[in-house]
Structure formats: C-alpha cells, structure tokens
C-alpha cells in the first residue's frame, strides 16, 4: 500500500534518510523503531506531507504522493504533542476535519458520536482540552485523526506523555481500535517494548537506514546483526572466531572466544568461513544458572555471582567468568518467598543449548 | 497577608507619590471653581460643563479617535502579517535583516520619523490631513504590534497548524481557524497598544497634521502655551479616567480567565 523507493532526504549537508526502500501493506500495524535522530520521524513527516524527499518516490496505493500537500492526502496524523486545538471543545476538535470536507451536518454529528463512543469520551464532549486529563487528551487526538476514516494513520510517539500503567492499557486499546477500523497504522517510537507490543511488523532504523524489518518475534529471536540484538531487549554478546564443526551437523560451528576457556557451540543458518570473526548473541532468559555443571550441556561456563537484580517476577544474575567477561542470566521467580539459591560470590555454572544463541557476523 | 517593613512602606510611598502626585494635582484642580488655575476657590464642576460646549476640543477629540481607530486597525493587520512571515516563513534571503529592521522604528527618535514622513508627504504631493496622520501613526505603531504578536508566535506550537493542514485545511483556513483564534489575545493587546500610542502622540502628529485636522494632544499643547486653563485640566482628567477604566477592565478580564483556566486544569488533574 505504501512504497518508499530509494528515498533520500537531506537537510543541508545532513542526510536524514539514506536511499531507503520499504513496503508497508494494507491493514498493517507497522512500527518505525530507533533511537532519536535515526530518521523515523522524518519518514513519518514525509508520509504526512510535511516534508518532501530530496530523491526517490513515495507511493500510496500505487500513486506517487510526493508534492501532494497534507490537506489533499488520505492520510491523517496523530501528533506527539497531540496538537489539540485549545480554543475548541473535544466535540469540535473531532468534527474539525469532517467540517473541512463540507459534509452535511447530520453526517458530521453521527461520525463524531461514533468516534466519541469508540474512544469512550462521550462524557467529555463539551469540555475544552485543558479541562481533561492527559490520557483523555490522547484519546481525543486519536479520535480526531481517525474521524475522517483515513487510509493510513500516522502516530508520532503517541504514548510518550503517558505514565507506564496508562501506556500499557492504551497500547491494547490502540491495537483494538486498529483491528476494529481496519486502518493501516504506522507508529513511530523509540520505546522497543511499545513497538513489540502493538506492531505486526517492526522496522529498526539507525542513521537513516533500515537495519531490519520483521515481525516482533523474529526481531527478538533472530536479529540480523549485533545492532538489532543489542537495541531490542537485553543480550549477552560474546565475540569469537567461528570454525565449522567437523563431526557435527553442517550448520554447527565451534567458537573460540577466550584463552583457556572451552570453545562454545552454536548453529547458524548463515555460513561462516573458518576463522571468521563472529558474535554470539544470547538472551539472558535462555541462560540457565546452576550450582553443578549440568550433564550433557555443550555450552557451559563457570564463574561467580557478581550482582543480583531482583525485579519481582524475575531475577537477573550478573556472573563474572574467569576470563573477566560478565554474562547475564535470568530466572523466573516462580515460587513465592523461595530461598534464594545463589548469593553474591557464589561459584556457579551457566549453560545454554546449541540453538539458544544467535551467531552474527557483525 | 504579610505586613510590610517600614523600609518597604517608605519605598512604596515614595515611588507612588512620585508617579501619581502630578496627576492627582491635575485632577484636583480640574474641580476648581476659580478661573485661575493656581488659586483654589472651592469645588465646582463648571469646567466639565464648559468643555462640552467647546467645539474646538470636541472636534479635536473626534479627529484623535478616528485616527486612533483607523491607524491601530491597519497597524494590527500589517503588524500581524509581518510577524507571521518573520517568525513562520521559510528562511529567505535577508530575513535577519528584515526582522532587525522591523524593530528599528521603536528606537528611532520621533522627531526624525515625523520629519521624514513630512518630507515624504510633501514629495508625493499628499495634502496633510486626517489621512496623513493615519498613515504616519500606522507606520510607527505597526512595529509595536509586530513585536507583541511575534513574541506570542514564537511560543506557538507549530504542530497545531500542521494538524489543521492534516485535517484538510488550506494554509489560509489553518490561519483563520486555528492560528488566529489562539493568538487573538496578543493581536488584541497589540491593537490596544497601537491605539493608546496613537491617542497620545504629539510629535509625529504635529509634523503630519494639517490645519483642518488637529488632534487632541496638539490642541492641548497649543492651548497650554497660551496659559493653562481649567478646561484643559478637566479634559485631561476625563482622559485619565478613560485610560484607567480601560486598563483595569483589561487586567480583570485576563486575570479572571487565568484563574478559571488554572482551576480547570487542577480539576482535570484530579479526575485522572
């Protein structure tokens, strides 16, 4: 439905978007994720019509939309600051876009009523934006941008101003509304948890380039490079040299990673040449911590507990290996007031399976 | 309420005495029964009555009012447009120069402004009258309006305009339906400022006024040169009263709306 073709955007000498191509499909909930300054907001502003690309094409439903002003696009945007009109009531804010289309009065009223119902704002229709709470304002902004039933809704850090609890509730509401209305949503966020929760597909961006575009679970479980692995969630990265395992399966590699430590083993779908530098990325929850060396474990290293972070539902152990490397391991606190098995300075074994980690080239 | 220390009381009294004793004397003498300004001969309102029958003063007052209304309205439109372009417009060549130049008349000595306008009007052969005073007043009050409006526009959230465009407004509609209502208080206070500046201007008006179009300040000034009459005291008192009522009303209105907005915001925060 949306197609970026070799889009480049420069501001003076600064390249915000660098020769980027991307397809976004109908009815998708698509997230642009990246640190601030990575170009995600520029992408969104180009879709909204507030910026035009220096080079390349942007198509919406097969038509080139470069040069079409914002008021002529079937695209609506929900602004980070919400941008509610302070001199208009909630009702008039939502009706604003509908009135510009010159729709009959009855139509406008019916549509506004529908939007108020969808966002559960019926009680606040007559209030001014400064007379309602932050969460309500956010819903007004959403209702206003959905009122014209756009083909595409752009959301710029829509939940940034809400506190954590409210944000989580609102995320589910957003997904619900997206499903009900069938609109294509493109959300810009720097919060990886938010992107993972709401989106059906996530694009991780950095310095004006797409690093990886995939579903949330693929982004998390099989990142394509160290940047993505590191940006999304918590991860241990072990640098080493890969050698194809002679006796094992075709895609098993031996990783020599530190003097005096047993080599590790990992599988990889991508090929590594013998002796090639590689990075093994392992999520902390895939690392098992135990007092004895687990029998039959192919990857097991020994160390002592350096730090314990108790987070309620889980605990993260920071374990220092004899080589000095620190590895994080997570265990779920499934039992209430369980006796803590390990404490500071305890010698422990860390182990993970051959498929537990991802082998990356860089 | 804290009580003031003696030092603060003295400073306050001195300051206010300095500011208001001259005006107070003027007001008191306007109720003097005597024809001699400096000799008190009992309370009377006869000068207010005579003022009503003084055609020359009334004509001058009417001219002044007309000039003030027209010049401040034109200055508000032009000043707002200039402020909008300078704050909002895309970067264009010489923008910094232009924004500097719009403030320059603020510090220009009035005599110079008046003289240059006079030369211009003579040069293009425009007869001096109400029209030339309106033009002259528009010229110098426009930059005050533009200063007031641009300081509001600088803090104006641009995404409000973008939201209006996004919802289907043309740029002109976005300005009329969103920007203008929100910056209206600044525009109104710009208008009020231009209006009062025009009301009390003497220097520029005396350069640009013709024989048929004397404004009140010119009239008062020339009358005073022949000797202060109690009538002028009465006229001045009326002007003080009008200005005082205007200022008090404006501050009450703005304070009320501020208090109401704060109350609303507190309630909204509690409801969350």
From TrEMBL, chain B:
<dbReference type="Pfam" id="PF00528">
    <property type="entry name" value="BPD_transp_1"/>
</dbReference>
<feature type="transmembrane region" description="Helical">
    <location>
        <begin position="99"/>
        <end position="124"/>
    </location>
</feature>
<feature type="transmembrane region" description="Helical">
    <location>
        <begin position="130"/>
        <end position="154"/>
    </location>
</feature>
<feature type="transmembrane region" description="Helical">
    <location>
        <begin position="174"/>
        <end position="194"/>
    </location>
</feature>
<feature type="transmembrane region" description="Helical">
    <location>
        <begin position="232"/>
        <end position="253"/>
    </location>
</feature>
<keyword id="KW-0472">Membrane</keyword>
<dbReference type="GO" id="GO:0005886">
    <property type="term" value="C:plasma membrane"/>
</dbReference>
<keyword id="KW-0813">Transport</keyword>
<feature type="transmembrane region" description="Helical">
    <location>
        <begin position="67"/>
        <end position="87"/>
    </location>
</feature>
<feature type="transmembrane region" description="Helical">
    <location>
        <begin position="12"/>
        <end position="31"/>
    </location>
</feature>
<keyword id="KW-1133">Transmembrane helix</keyword>
<comment type="similarity">
    <text>Belongs to the binding-protein-dependent transport system permease family. CysTW subfamily.</text>
</comment>
<dbReference type="InterPro" id="IPR051789">
    <property type="entry name" value="Bact_Polyamine_Transport"/>
</dbReference>
<dbReference type="InterPro" id="IPR000515">
    <property type="entry name" value="MetI-like"/>
</dbReference>
<dbReference type="GO" id="GO:0055085">
    <property type="term" value="P:transmembrane transport"/>
</dbReference>
<protein>
    <submittedName>
        <fullName>ABC transporter permease subunit</fullName>
    </submittedName>
</protein>
<keyword id="KW-0812">Transmembrane</keyword>
<dbReference type="InterPro" id="IPR035906">
    <property type="entry name" value="MetI-like_sf"/>
</dbReference>
<feature type="domain" description="ABC transmembrane type-1">
    <location>
        <begin position="61"/>
        <end position="253"/>
    </location>
</feature>
<keyword id="KW-1003">Cell membrane</keyword>
